[in-house]
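2024-03-11 09:14:02 DEBUG pipeline.ingest accepted 1 chain
2024-03-11 09:14:02 DEBUG pipeline.ingest length=570
2024-03-11 09:14:03 DEBUG pipeline.predict start
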Amino acid sequence: MNYKHVIYTLFTFILSFSVGAAEFSRYLINHSVEEGLSQSLVNQTLQDSDGYIWVATEFGLNRFDGYEFEQIPGPNNSFASDGIVHLALLESGELFVSTYYNGAYLLDTKTLTANQIFSGRLAEVSDDVLSVDFVLEKSNALWFAIGQHLVEYHRQSKSYAVRYSMGNDEQAIRALTLDNDSLYMATTRGLKLFDMSSKRVVSLEHLPASVVKTRDNINVKAFLRDASLGLLVGTVQGLYSFDLATNKPKEVIVPELNIWGVIDKGTELFIGTQRGLYAYDKSTNKLNHLVKYSDVNPLITNNSIKNIYLDHSGLFWLSSQIQGVFTFDPNVRNFSSYSRLSTLKLTNSVVHDYLESSDGVYWIATENGLNRIDSIKDETQSFFVSADDKAVFGQQTIFKLFPIKNNKMWMWHGNGLSLFDLTEKNIAISSLSPKINEEFRLLYPYGVEQVASDKFAFISSKGHFLLDVTRNEIRSLDTLNTNFKPEGSATFLPSFSGKDNVLLATTGGLIDYNFIEKTYRTVFQIEGFHIHDYKYVSDWIKTADGHIWLAVNGLGVVELDKEYRVVRTL
């Protein structure tokens, strides 16, 4: 069974990474206040062990279950009335939540109860309200970056100790990372090391000797540990590698860009910057620009990715400072999109069907013409294209391509059925007479399915029919017409059982019909359906375990076992 309709909404094929950033940006999916997010300036995203996505905004904490956002108020509305600065998932499974003015909390992600562990004040250094900008966990202690201060919090005794201060409230510690007892601090004045054993702090040089120091490239803001490159140090002006064994700088990875965050995915680094998302190939040292927000919406003027997070499914969550959070699947780079605007152009961007005739050679049925794309040779050819922009319906409208046999395929188009020769690239002679083809056309068929090499089942407003090309006749499927009204029928599909059978997808069910014995049985029924819901099976696929997956319009994906019993609905 062909499962292209289950997988593809748009016509895409696996090809090389040849598409530009604007092309990839179309795959950005935006979640903002319109989708229920409490505020559109997002500071951070994070996923818990149950799969929930937590979104920290400038006004409120949100939890996403894959369908909708829920605003989490916190104790006495402490989250809902404040901005969320930082999130971290602790080893206990608790979520660390830091706010601007209401302190920091440990949140139970299952019960949503929260306990405050920091009031927002460090009496020994300041009377001002302070926020925890970053937290790092080591054993029973939590290490906080609070403004210019490094603070150790003992969870058992619930006590604090200020371990280091930079000496100027205009300076700040922006991120922390740990290597054994060495705590590295990303600060606005460079890279610093706090030795947990000696409690001493030393300043380290993270810039290679060839790099001229600027105010921006000493402003360190992000860390990432990488097995091959060492410690990656992100700054306001560039990404640099640092040797943890010698505490010496190594090399420039990315110059100039403002680095907000870095994700390691094996052979690549994904980097959030002020210009959008980049991919860095470790083997070639090549930097590729992938996406930016303004490609999706030209009214977006700020392309900074304030935070980048990789969830359990491999999806990137990109925080924006103006339009909520965006998701991006890096696997879309394995696909190239064909349309009227792509390099290998289609004659029309409305694609009804496609077939692969050989490796890398595709036939695409569109609203205006049949297209042949050779993705290996980068060649396209088109057939039956109408130059009349007023033409609405005709042979140029290709609805469906049927399986190739002897290098020929039947096409269903606006003028009926035609047999197309893939070698000669023209209409082939067939036994279908013009008279019967015209009768077929005038029935205004839909839901056409090839049930044998010379037979096609179809639906029209007048009922259910079978077109026999060899006998040149159209006969009524009386059993179906007696029991099912055509307005409740959506399409014919290939049968689960194969020969002499065809599936009829109706609003609410799936009927297996034997057109030899003229009998039928119901193999799937949608519970609680109403005929006006128009929920129907549009396609299916059988997996290696014998289970069948149905694509059900208006419902989702349904798994059936070998006896066609419902296992689950997604």
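2024-03-11 09:14:41 DEBUG pipeline.report DSSP finds four helices and 50 strands in the chain.
2024-03-11 09:14:41 DEBUG pipeline.predict end
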